[in-house]
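Our consortium's second objective concerns turning raw sequence data into structural hypotheses that experimental partners can test. To show how far this objective has progressed, the report includes one record in full. It was chosen at random from the queue rather than selected for favorable results. The single chain below, 558 residues long, was entered without modification.
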Amino acid sequence: MKQNILILASLACLGLAIPAAYATDTLFLSQNVITMERGKRSSQPLAVAVTGERISWIGPLDEARQQQQSHTKVIDLGERALLPGFIDAHGHISSVGIVAQLANVASPPVGPVTNMDELVKVLQAHIRNNEIAPGEWVVGRGYDDSLLAEERHPTRDDLDRASSEHPIMLIHVSGHLAAANSRALARAGINDETPNPDGGVIRRYADSNRPNGVLEETAASSVRAYMMEAIKDPVASIKLAMEEYAKNGITTAQDGGSSPQSVALLKAADQAGYVNLDVIAFPQGQTDERATLDAFEFGSYQGRIKIGGIKLMLDGSPQGKTAYMTKPYFIAPDGQTADYRGYPIIPQPRVSELVSTYFAADVPVIAHANGDAAADMLIEAVSETAYQKDHRTVMIHAQTVREDQLTAMKTLGMVPSYFAAHSFYWGDWHRDSVFGVERASRISPTASTVARAMWFTVHNDSPVVPPDVMRLLWATTNRLTRSDQVLGRNQRIATYDALRAVTINAAYQHFEEDLKGSIEVGKQADLVVLSTDPLSLPASDLLQVEVEATYSRGRKVF
């Protein structure tokens, strides 16, 4: 079979059809096939044959019978749509299943918490239902100060109400801050004398050095290090994540900012047979670049896992008000002055040094840059190199990139990957508290990017928000906030362009456009079946479209 697949791929590269002698395993028939090939912006009636892991033939419905053998499984989709499988342009799949084992302290629609009293009750119920003994860690994920009635972060005093016998740590919805109770702070060695670490802040009570329990960026690392103590079965959590991604039509997932432990976890889960999607990991690479280069084999799949490059973290979160901006926040966070602009996690010379080192090793770079000042840092680092190859450096999130920055990024061959779901989840917060109307209206400037004919992608950054691709497409095309207001009407794009951002563009971002991202002969049979043709609907109705089936490498996984 492996030899057959190589033959199929070779024929496809030559632009030749696959001979009928290669028996068709599965034959899809649909009135609405969206191939995502360049220049084909509408659905069409087609038959698609799959042999092994590859697409072996595509043709008119009335010629499909020629591809059918006695063992061929024929799937007649009727009016249901067939598309290439969705590709996760940025997320953390190793964390998605783990989060399912933590206390859900998110606000609707993801979780139940709307105020501090409910937060305390959820934590107490989690302790009780999971029989967590005194002294054992209690970890929650997803609290959002912008959606709590009190409009603030939980403090050590709030969390001490939930339990003073357990160390409690809550991870902010952005993943960039944490809140800890008194026992957790003591366990992590954080007290009145503990200084702020580089790239982080220990928030303190007013007119005092006493930590209030809220920890920003690198300051949260000392408590986050204990998170895995709350996980009972890490390997099985990967199986849960696979199921969650597959039911959303995703056939290639990303694990951004992987630790050596999370890469080992993914590989162990793959060996156990739990991994049925392709996973591309990008280890965190800003601590010791030489050790990172020595530790990983980059660029090829081992089983279903590939190390695709490295990830850098340049700044924080806009909703957490730690992103590094060129202009002050609309309303400064507690304890900051009116000229507060956030801060970088690492300085410019270090960013330039890291980019140069990884470019020299031919290792792709993706870099988290939410604020436009952080975007300037990445652009400067890339522009300083003499690297001539196709590097496709990805600016992850790119929430506030300016027009001049987009022009520079196109010239440099960089790819913005927008956290476009922000317009729904935090659009009102960005407009009213973080950026003000003008800047908030052009977060994730997808229309500006389309106008420049640039490669770009969109993502959910799961587990920050669920890996719901249809909601991501809806958010990208409609830009509606929770209060049902349009945030940046002139940055809305067409459904087809949004679909490109989660298919062929995302394949390009990962250097896999010859293998994935469109329905073409010789490409991997990664396919998703939707309940209806999304191109036939107004963008406002995209949330009505359901994922009905997902196929990864020719096998049904949902």
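The partners drew two points from this record. Residues 1-5, 12-18 have pLDDT under 50 and may be disordered. Residues 155 and 373 are 30 Å apart (CA to CA). Both points have been shared with the crystallography group to help prioritize constructs.
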